[in-house]
Amino acid sequence: MPQQPGRGLGPRGFLTDEEKENLPKVDKKLLRRILSYLKPYRLQFVLVFAAILLSAVVGLLPSVITGKIVDEALINKDLTLLIRLLLMAFATLAISQIIGVLETYINAWISQKIIFDMKNQMYHHLQYMPHSFFTTEKQGDIITRMNTDISGVSTVISGTLSNIVSNAAVVATTLAALFTMSWKLAIVGVIIIPLLILPTKRVGKNQWKIRSDSQGKSDEMNQLINESLSVSGSVLVKLFTREEREYERFKKVNAELTALNLKEQRSGSWFRVVMGMFTQVGPLLIYFAGGYLIISRMDTGLTVGTITAMVALINRLYRPVQSLLNLQVDFTRSLALFTRIFEYFDMKSSIVSPENGVKPDVTCKDITYEHVAFSYDPKIPILKDVNFTVPGGRMYAIVGPSGSGKSTVVNLIPRLYDVNSGAVKIGGTDVRDFDLNWLRNNVGVVTQETYLFNGTIRENLLYAKEDATEEELIKACKNASIHGFILNQPDGYDTIVGNRGLKLSGGEKQRLSIARVILKNPKILILDEATSALDSISENAIQDALELLMQGRTSIVIAHRLSTILKADCILVVKDGVIAEQGDHDSLLKAGGIYKELYETQFRRILDLEGNEATGSDYWDTVEEENNGF
Length: 630
Description:
The chain has about 625 residues and is an alpha/beta fold. Among the domains are: about 10-180 and about 315-350, Up-down Bundle (ABC transporter transmembrane region fold); about 190-300. About 65% of the residues lie in helices and about 10% in strands. Strands 6-7-8-3-9-10 form a 6-stranded mixed beta sheet. It has a 4-stranded antiparallel beta sheet with strand order 2-1-4-5, with no helix packed on it. α7 packs antiparallel against α10 and α16 (about 470-480) packs across α18. The longest helix has about 55 residues, at about 245-295. The chain is elongated and about 120 Å long.
């Protein structure tokens, strides 16, 4: 397998320390699992192996014909025979090339089909992994398994596997031909093989060390480029006027990488000189031994043509022998590649739809938390014995300090996570008993961090309802106060939003997200600081739309604006993973507890300026711009 940057693979013939420490456990179960992907294409594999064997046999003929040219055509001065033998040699070469093309095509077809199957399986598997998987696994690792690792299977199929069979076939047929022609000269030719192996191993280890250093330096350069030339990185460089400093850093790393590359090339050039000399020793020994046998008449059956043919065959032998000596390394790396892929396939989703999951009507149904406990890490509890009920059709607000568990509370409703103990119920039914698709189709969520796909505005809206009409799209966008902005774009609803909505402002992205949920028309609404990225004017513009959307729906709002809190039927105060207080705004202020502390901390500066304890919507009008929320 070729070396892949950043993957810890050493050059051909050597295992890195990391690879040695993580050698895959080879057993029948692993081999059977790998073969299960190859089994559907067993007929094509038979054709490939047949083509390889035929190619190995046909590949002998040019050398054999060369011997006949010398012994029969040249010595006898037979021009007709010479032409005929040359044409035969050309024909065998042409047939060998055609077989090679056929073998390559079938090999490529098999490997791409297997990659197609595995990528489909992996993508489908990952789509149903729980949300916790994506918050704990590195995105780069997921992409590597999905793309690099599975694509590497192509190298295993068309490279490692085919090379093993091909080299074995070439070695077997060549040795058979050599010993058939002259066992004495065959032994002389084979003796040279250790002289090829030893310097290859020695020089290879030196190149491996240089290449490892070079790869590390290359990774450092890539990291530097990625950081300093990204959108955010380039802005930071400009704001702090660090252009020259970054240039000097790059120049230093580039100089070190260049020096290592030159060192590797120098090492390789001398190695090629040495190997070139050794590969000529075998033919020279055969010429010497053959000449001695003929001149001394110790082998009267030996001819000049036979010696010529054996020299050609011995040259054909050395490279596949060297490749087969690396069989253990190639085999280990191939198994390690499949093992990494299977690690993901073996990860089971902890959140699945139950068999025969229920699909009850959840319109205006109570949402109840009964002794709910939850933690991402067993050692660090997030929620502890949470109990509350949101009556059907009501709107409850959740407030609390950052990190208190507000978002975790609402994430349990659509089962982005499951409780560790206790239960979350809708209309008396545990959410874990719901059909998962039914549950999530009935819950609409607007998150603080809006995510948009790199497509058009229309495509991002239709993600909520694929069969939505143009009128429905426009109505949803008008309600979210984004329709006018869209019409002002050159391509209207077909405007590209960019990667993660980069071409839009935070407020524009959030209004699109709200329009998307309006289009979904869910029975249960969750707003996780849904207006945090909006300015006062934008928020006021869509506040009525949100209130209209919440009518007839059971709603939970993680609030950051006082105006939203004041309009809630009840306020839940979360602190240290429990519902510390609940009630309306006035009663919580009078209680003088956590809510009052949060309230006064949030508005202390304004309270000091105004010198009073303004409350209600009049106060909200005064301090809108100062309010960053709970």
